[in-house]
Amino acid sequence: MEESIIKVEHLSHRYSIQWAIRDINFEITRNGIYGLLGSNGAGKSTTMNIMCGVLKQTEGEVYIKGINLRENPVEAKKHLGFLPQKPPLHMDLTVEEYLVHCANMRLIPTHEVQGAVKDVMGRCGISHFSRRLIRNLSGGYQQRLGIAQAIIHNPDFVVLDEPTNGLDPNQIMEIRELIREIAVDRTVILSTHILSEVQATCDYIRMIEEGQVVFSGTMDEFDNYIVPNTLFVSLIATPPVEEIREIPGVVAVEELGGSKFRIQFSDALEATERLVETSVTKGWRLVEIRQEKSSLDEIFAELSKK
Ligand SMILES: Nc1ncnc2c1ncn2[C@@H]1O[C@H](COP(=O)(O)OP(=O)(O)OP(=O)(O)O)[C@@H](O)[C@H]1O
User: Which PANTHER family match (predicted)?
Assistant: First the structure.
């Protein structure tokens, strides 16, 4: 049996009278990068804050490596690293001083602190800035340092809240690369409402809407969530729309101009075969025919409606 890295059971949270999340359940048993996706206010930060032990849930349990976070927070947090939306950096310390402070906070034995700091600076590509004041680092390097403090104690499970927020495109690419590197031997959950972020970085998706999980699966499963039901067809001839509509399997036809059509079908195989046949018989001279997949934005919108 695969070992449980994180397990969330019947998690619910109410801030005052309104439930922010309601009965969230999931378990992760495999390393990789998991995207926690959802619109603004869906409940991502609430879920992450509870998973990281910085917010006490109203109901339910979180287990990290089988350890109940509520009952045994110190032990559970040894396996957990967290980069909140605003990295908890001390601007007047140097990179090295700050990481030594984090190592001490994480109860790393004194004789191992220097080694752990050196190692994590290397992994996060910040060794050359070890003596620089944090306030003088660029946003991208501050974020690298934020990730460094999250993994200094070598946790199995790392939570990153909107890790590329506010970075420029080059810095975003670098941070994504770093996330991929640290996820090689651990589980990373990152929250975002940016779809391209999930697409570029994550292997798996959990989507939350109105405090409930509405999707859980691989990136590929998310991509194929809406079964395609339209064909894009380009012809040399311009047949009357009625003639296309009569083809078995075709439900509706939209003219796109320039002898191009969007054709809604009930049966993909039948509509495609008949269209190709009819095009040959009637001399429509087919140039292109392809199924149109829904964009990630459309899938997100569809799931948000639930
Ligand atoms: N401290 C709080 N007090 C009262 N309500 C809150 C508090 N924090 C969040 N909420 C409410 O709980 C719900 C979930 O919020 P949460 O911040 O978890 O969502 P989110 O998905 O992280 O959104 P965002 O992407 O905007 O950060 C929202 O309706 C929000 O208004």
Answer: ABC TRANSPORTER, ATP-BINDING PROTEIN
Residue nearest to atom 24 of ligand 1 (CA): 40
Beta bridge partners of 253: 263
Of 91, 118, 124, nearest to 103 by C-alpha is: 118
Core vs surface per residue 273-295: b (16+ CB within 10 A) or e: ebbeebbeeeebeeeebeeeebe
Homologous superfamily of 6-223: P-loop containing nucleotide triphosphate hydrolases (3.40.50.300)
Centre of ligand 1 from the C-alpha of residue 275, in Å: 50
CB burial readout 43-65, b (16+ within 10 A) else e: bbbbbbbbbbbebebeebebbbb
Secondary-structure class of domain 230-293 per CATH: alpha beta
Q: Per residue in 167-206, pLDDT tens?
A: 888 888 989 999 999 999 899 999 887 888 888 899 999 9
